[in-house]
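Re: [help] complex structure
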Amino acid sequence: MTDRPYVIDEMISAKSIAARVEELAREIQAHFKGTDKLIVVGLLRGSFVFISDVVRELDLPVEVDFLEASSYGDGMESSREVRILKDLRGEISGRDVLVVEDIVDTGFTLSHVMNLLKSRGPARIETIALLDKPSRREVDIRATWTGFEIPDEFVVGYGIDYAQRNRNLPYIGKVRFT
Ligand code: IMP
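Output below.
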């Protein structure tokens, strides 16, 4: 919990997010057309709203699993050292995998998770990130599909938190300290 007062300025409306999720789901569906072995893996906790919207737009047989990696803790700085706090429940060897991330920032989290999951021998593995902050990147990685590129701002809402708060906002907003 933080005591520093702040306001949230809307950056991406709920309507724009919904329209973009629909577009992305169409591309994902075309990519994985005909599969009967897709597992959609959400990175906790920030992707929980995004993954629920994405899977409901997919007209494919899907399984859903979750993985939790440590990242920002309760602050605004990336820790760089990524640890797996909760692993997948299921096996992904020989399966098609779609990893769902909320934000690619420095890239450490996605890169670490991808190396781990690739080592388990999936048939295919792709990634989707709702947001991308390319100007912050320290590891050369890009998601296969990206919802929106955003500038170097700290954002919340639609599953994304600041010190565990604001995940329930239906839109993406930027934090402005007052
Ligand atoms: P990375 O390892 O630096 O790419 O960090 C990725 C993770 O940091 C994301 O999955 C988020 O959980 C968190 N993160 C990065 N930027 C923000 C932000 O603007 N607001 C809230 N969390 C963020």
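The first strand starts at residue 6 and ends at 12.
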